[in-house]
Amino acid sequence: MSKIQLIIEREYMSRVRKKSFLVLTFLVPVLLIALVFVPFLLSTMNGSEVKQVAVVDYSGRYFPRLEGNEQYRFVSDKGNRDAYRIEAMKNKDIYALLVIEGNLSGDSGKVTVYAHKQVELDLKEFVTNQLVTLARKDKIASFAIPNLESIIQKTDVRLSVNTFTWEEDGSEKKSSSELAMIIGLICTMAIYIFIFAYGAMVMNGVIEEKTNRIVEIIVSSVRPFELMMGKIIGIAMVGLTQVLLWVVLIGGIVGITSTYVGHSMNTGQVQAIGQQIAGNPSLNLPGQTLNTNDMGVLSKDIAGNPQMTDLMEVAGNLNLGELAIWFILFFLGGYLLYASLFAAVGSAIDSQEDAQQFTLPLTIPVLFALYAGMASANNPDGPLAFWCSIIPFTSPIVMMVRIPFGVPFWQLMLSFGLLVITFLLTTLMAAKIYRTGILMYGKKVTYKELWKWLTYKS
Question: What is the pLDDT of residue 299?
Fold first, then answer.
């Protein structure tokens, strides 16, 4: 077994056995699932009692037509605004006061909401939407044109644009820009987080060994380059192991949680979800009303929805195998490129306090790549997307946004080839800094000093 393999095994085993690794590995999937399911579960629970909103309608034309919901109920206040202000200090049952003045469909209309504390955004939007609808109806009625409202409603046009891609054999495949954008951004964020998290882990590991003087013993048996490469690859394997476990755990937790939610939801909650879906024109089937009595029936209705079927078809048309291969290649290429630089920084400094000065030049291109990736999602073939997907310091992040939209093979090979070449060059440069800095203590290193180490000929 080579010395690099021994170092890789040492780095890997020493880190996966740590309690922090085990806790983080099992805690992150639980937190991610909680971010998705907890708001849903809370929304299905019965909230607090309905809040009463007193209404002072000076025109007398809006209050009779206001409709409450499960959160707010409108009650008539026979007094006026000033009288209510005095009464509000005594009567805490009234949550807020809605004052309507003038004709809302004209220029004299005015709406004000008073409350004991800052008015909730939900209440403001709920009141605004209802009054705008009522004022619109009054405005239409003022034209005295028979059936004008129904005529206007008939002019509403709903248009759904289908997109297809032409294959080289002349066939057509249904596509979705939205789905491609989502997949690209997810891959981009994964690489961005991985580079920062595990690149910093490499740097911290080097600093720790240097501070504890362990490295003096290690370099007596192995070359600094072997030590650096073993540490980089070992930590990369730790990261891949952790990501793989996250995928397995999240998949298992999602399956168990969705099954539990499906069995624990009562009929009323399921019917409420069905009504929400049925009330959404973009999800509703023509001539079909979702009236479900159990989760199984609701699931079948959703599965039979044309948009859900289209989504599954589009997902099937994406070459996920090719996407996964390129993701792994750029994933590892980007990590190895930056990890070698982080290792060089770790070898040049003695403490975490000095890290900021030298990590800033590494942080800027990664942050710019994230910005460029998000901007490129709207124009994946534009100049910004093209050049940032070719330049090695930004290509691992930006290219993953472009791949779901389709990238010529020569661009993929050019981008990855340049990434590999740059990784080899930066590794050689980092090795020179690492070789000198790993055994240097008690001296504040400057960029001028780093340049001397790079140009030093052994």
Answer: 47
